[in-house]
Amino acid sequence: MILSGKEIVKHMGKEIVIEPFDPKRVNPNSYNLSLYNELMVYNDRELDMAKQNSVSVIRMPEEGYVLQPNTLYLGRTNEYTKTENYIPMLEGRSSVGRLGVFIHVTAGFGDVGFAGYWTLEIFCVQPIRIYPDVEICQIYYHDIDGEYDCYESGKYQHNNGIQPSMLWKDFLK
């Protein structure tokens, strides 16, 4: 079951934390999150899953930044979220997708107990100007049934910034 917008509001400050929170961003069954003013790109055209890949940070000016096709951009939400007793899920907004910008296409499934900022995988099909603070994606919450372990530590838990892939750490085991 997906929580309605009214249920999200009802659980704010308890099982659901969104900081900062703006009641105008509540939708019928989700909440709009906005884009931080930095992007990250990988420096090499060929990446290696087993190694830490080199990245660069791009600071987006208020007048926007033009994304280029065939480049993966990593962004971050302005909002810090924390969720207990629900599964947080992230999707791009349809208005953004209709411009050919794909947000979080393959990794929108969160863990119960996740706390931090969401790193967004951003890809576009044609050049497009994006802006800091734009409401770029939406978070929604699934009920969970059965016993579960709360996500308390991991590669991405309690992050403060954009997180490139840390899959390379899995190869160290």
From TrEMBL:
GO terms for biological process: dUMP biosynthetic process; dUTP biosynthetic process; nucleobase-containing small molecule interconversion. Its EC number is 3.5.4.30. It is an enzyme of class 3 (hydrolase). It comes from the Bacteria. The record marks G108, F109 as: Important for bifunctional activity. Keywords: Hydrolase, Nucleotide metabolism, Nucleotide-binding. Belongs to the dCTP deaminase family. Homotrimer. PANTHER family: DCTP DEAMINASE. Bifunctional enzyme that catalyzes both the deamination of dCTP to dUTP and the hydrolysis of dUTP to dUMP without releasing the toxic dUTP intermediate. This is dCTP deaminase, dUMP-forming. The gene is dcd.
